[in-house]
Description:
Strands 7, 8, 9, 10, 11, 12, 13 and 14 form an 8-stranded antiparallel β-sheet that branches. A 6-stranded mixed β-sheet has the order 2-1-3-5-4-6, with helices on one face. Helices cover 18% and strands 31% of the residues. β8 (171-179) and β9 form a beta hairpin. It folds into 2 domains: 6-149, S-adenosyl-l-methionine hydroxide adenosyltransferase, N-terminal (Rossmann fold, 3-Layer(aba) Sandwich); 166-258, Beta Barrel (Elongation Factor Tu (Ef-tu), domain 3). The protein starts with 5 loop residues before the first strand and ends with a strand. The protein is of the alpha+beta class. It has helices spanning 18-29, 47-57, 100-105, 129-142, 243-246; strands spanning 6-10, 35-39, 66-70, 81-86, 89-94, 110-113, 166-168, 171-179, 185-190, 197-204, 207-212, 224-228, 233-238, 254-258.
Amino acid sequence: MDGSTITLTTDFGETDPYVASMKGVLTKLAPGVPVLDLSHAIPPQEVFEAALFLAGCVPWFPAETVHVVVVDPGVGTERMPIAVRWRGQLLVGPDNGVFTMLARKAPFEGIRRIEHPECRMEPVSATFHGRDVFAPTGAKLAMGMPFEAIGAAVADPVMLSVPEPKRLGNVITGEVIHIDRFGNTITNISDDDIKISNTYVVTVGSHSITGIMRTYGEAPQGAPLALIGSGGLLEIAVNQGNAHRALGLNRGMPVYVET
């Protein structure tokens, strides 16, 4: 794959040797291929958070990018190691639903179980497939191994259960699905469900906000607001503040939009 790049997304943090070990394997098996760190700060074992993260960044990468994803609480169990083709890119990781949100944006173009003997570092550790299976597979794909050679086709990958907003009359009910670094609370209500308007009323917890704004700065400093964020989802935020702390908002809380 001429011009390919390998990216890494894990929940490993950066204080242990795990990420560095994977980079060692990638450097050995795919010399000269750039390796980009997307994030190693996914909360430990939070597969849904990883799925949201990938859906927010992978679509912006060019075709032929190889993404190695290791958020894998089931490592060493019977869960499959898989490679996925999506919009001309390749993703390598566990079959635990981590690619669910990408599949909701566009169908997979192929899924393969990782079986090829060259896609492993022997002996394979039962607890570190990131180093011993996923990194070698990513390296081989970046160096030109045909996707179809990875292993048998997979027809029914694991998909996470994703909460869907519901409409009853003029009220849409959703929930907070993510809290970002700024304390913005991101919901599962999308710009397909609502539009920017000064007439909508958004209620979460004990707080009601009138209007859905275009930018954070449209609200006074320190004031709560609702807006459609860069990912196309409704957010509740505090201008130059932290909605998670200031408003006591947490993941899973119901959100009501009166339209």
